[in-house]
Amino acid sequence: MERAAAAVLPADVRDFLFGGSGAETTLDANRAAMDRVFLVPRVLRDVSRCTTGTTLLGRPARMPVAVAPVAYQRLVHPEGELAAARAAHAAGVPFTAGSLSSVPVERLTATGAAVWFQLYWPRASGHAFDLVTRAEDAGVEAIVLTVDVPWMGRRLRDMRNRFALPDHVRAAHLAAGTTAAHRAPAGPSSALAAHTDAAFSASLTWASVAALRERTRLPLVLKGVLAPEDAVRAVECGVDAVVVSNHGGRQLDGAVPSVDALPGIVAALGGRCEVLLDSGVRSGTDVLRALALGARGVLVGRPPVWGLAMGGEAGARRVLELLGDEFRDALGLAGCADVSAAGELRTLRR
After folding, report:
1. Residue by residue, what is the 3-state secondary structure of the chain?
2. Which PROSITE patterns match (predicted)?
């Protein structure tokens, strides 16, 4: 799917989706680090009824996977996030609607999918609370606050391409101030970076997290945590989960691979909240690796969008079906009859 999507997408859209920041060191390191994790399978266990079901944020999921937020999915298919949400619903996993979704959250929850709402903190904190209220009224099941984007990382592919949005793709949750995202810059720069800098705040702090915790009764998730100290602080602020994530290698280039940061955060939290892993997940074996290292589940971002580019809802659904098939296969071959047993596996690092 990755290769097929790369072959059909326009070059600038392909670079926007596939690229990372800086020299893309962290982008590449995410996969390299994942491939260094080796599982120690158990044998002579009854896996004749191998089941992949679990709960994420207290709600049932068919496998320990949620679809991560990816901005502007109408860039790759006319239905964009709408088709992707339907695919997630069919797969029985949560779908995360982004602040920069090109389809309104109300249409996404109407698909019947379990929808989480990802929030970038706007410059006006009142707008943040308005977005949360809108998402709550639409029926979302969790709020996912992204905390690693004070501004957009230097994504050199986008800068070289002078990347800007086509007129038919809009940020559905930002009614005003989106013109900059559609205006190609005069020199090497990214219109999306300029828009992000104008729309979102670089002064997000722990006080903002505490204020958001006070404003919503929904599960609150912090996405973009890599330091154990920050994970502990998050729990002290009352969050329900953290997502160990380096934003898919799209923010600080040189940041630690997410899977390398995961064990330290799991140890520091000691089960006080759920821990999810994001960045670099490409297979069912990767899902099992994350669980063996202590995660409750994973978020997967780019792969469903590759499927979306290839075949809309059917393509995104196929990606999630493949991920589920691979995970069940890995789970059973590792001697685990269910997801809880995966957390008991040992791992070795090459």
Report:
1. CHHHHHHHCCHHHHHHHHCCCCCCHHHHHHHHHHHCEEEECCCCCCCCCCCCCEEECCEEECCCEEECCCCCHHHCCCCCHHHHHHHHHHHCCCEEECCCCCCCHHHHHCCCCCEEEEECCECCHHHHHHHHHHHHHHCCCEEEEECCCCCCCCCHHHHHHCCCCCCCCCCCCCCCCCHHHHCCCCCCCCHHHHHHHHHECCCCCHHHHHHHHHHCCCCEEEEEECCHHHHHHHHHCCCCEEEECCHHHCCCCCCCCHHHHHHHHHHHHCCCCEEEEECCCCCHHHHHHHHHCCCCEEEECHHHHHHHHHHHHHHHHHHHHHHHHHHHHHHHHCCCCCHHHHCCCEEEEC
2. FMN_HYDROXY_ACID_DH_1, FMN_HYDROXY_ACID_DH_2
Catalytic one of 77, 89, 173, 247? 247
To the query of whether residue 168 is one of the catalytic residues in this protein, the response is: no
Q: Is 31 annotated as a binding residue?
A: no
Q: Tell me the domains of the chain and their CATH numbers.
A: 2-349 (3.20.20.70)
- Has 11 been labeled as part of a binding site? no
**How much is the pTM?**
0.97
Task: List per-block mean pLDDT (blocks of 10 residues) for the chain, which spans 350 residues.
Answer: 96 97 98 98 98 98 98 98 98 98 98 98 92 98 98 96 94 73 80 88 96 98 98 98 98 98 98 98 98 98 98 98 98 98 96
